[in-house]
Write a structure and sequence with these properties.
This protein is of the alpha/beta class. It is built from eight helices and seven strands. The longest helix has 29 residues.
């Protein structure tokens, strides 16, 4: 991964931060792309620098195509052409379908699924032209097994599978691989918004007996992004502690 340029959407989040750090350790030039306001992003960047991680910033809204296009132009001008793309931006808005509003549906689908097109479309032609690329899309264990109150989230993350496999077929002979990873429950701010009693039941249901660490998910993503993973494409890596093995 030495000197490869890697862009991570949702890069300032818990999992995104771990991915950026892991890529830095492997010698990549890393860009964290996020929708945080500039002051918060700069504070995050400063904190990472103190830890020894030099990470570039880029700003966009993954639900808006033009915003993603402007971000891509900025990154390619300031940093260079992107070799590795990790689509890690995501959100949840849990509610039973009978009570779900259109806004709650759209919020999740636009962020978790439309972003696949809005971001990836900006970089795919460059990867094809250069004959090299690694694209890793973050799905979810709940896309495979379903989850109460997550028809919006599970639908969007299931769509990530179809996106991954279809794009992988289109670019397989171009030196570009496209893979997905489906984490289980990760020790992150998103999971920690779940009420404690429910979170306790979730942890008890995980065969390994704990939540994943963000750095464990980051390591798996770095594996998919490595140059030695060139024969691995169109796959989905389940990284869920054994909570679903179907």
């Amino acid at each position: 991964m030495e000197k490869r340029i890697a862009l991570v959407t949702g890069g300032c989040g818990d999992i995104g931060t771990a991915i950026c750090q892991e890529f830095c350790r492997r010698g990549a030039i890393v860009v964290a792309a996020d929708r945080l306001d500039k002051d918060k992003a700069l504070l995050w960047q400063s904190q990472q620098k103190k830890l020894g991680f030099e990470i570039e910033l880029a700003f966009m809204n993954v639900t808006q195509y033009e915003s993603c296009a402007n971000m891509a132009k900025d990154v390619e001008t300031r940093v260079g052409p992107v070799d590795i793309l990790v689509n890690a931006a995501g959100t949840i808005c849990d509610v039973t379908f009978a009570k779900m509003t259109q806004q709650q549906w759209n919020q999740v689908v636009h962020t978790d699924l439309d972003s696949m097109f809005n971001v990836t479309r900006q970089f795919i032609n460059g990867m094809i032209a250069r004959g090299y690329g690694r694209i890793i899309n973050i799905s979810s264990v709940n896309a495979k097994k379903g989850q109460f109150g997550q028809t919006n989230y599970a639908s969007a993350k299931s769509g990530v599978y179809g996106f991954t496999k279809s794009l992988a077929l289109e670019v397989a002979r171009k030196g570009v691989t496209v893979n997905a990873i489906s984490p289980g429950y990760v020790d992150s701010r998103m999971v920690n918004t779940i009420p404690a009693p429910i979170r306790k039941k979730i942890i008890e249901s995980i065969p390994i007996g704990r939540l994943a660490k963000p750095e464990e998910i980051a390591w798996a993503i770095a594996f998919l992004a490595s140059e030695k993973s060139g024969f691995l494409t169109g796959s989905n890596l389940s990284d869920n502690g054994g909570i679903h093995m179907g």
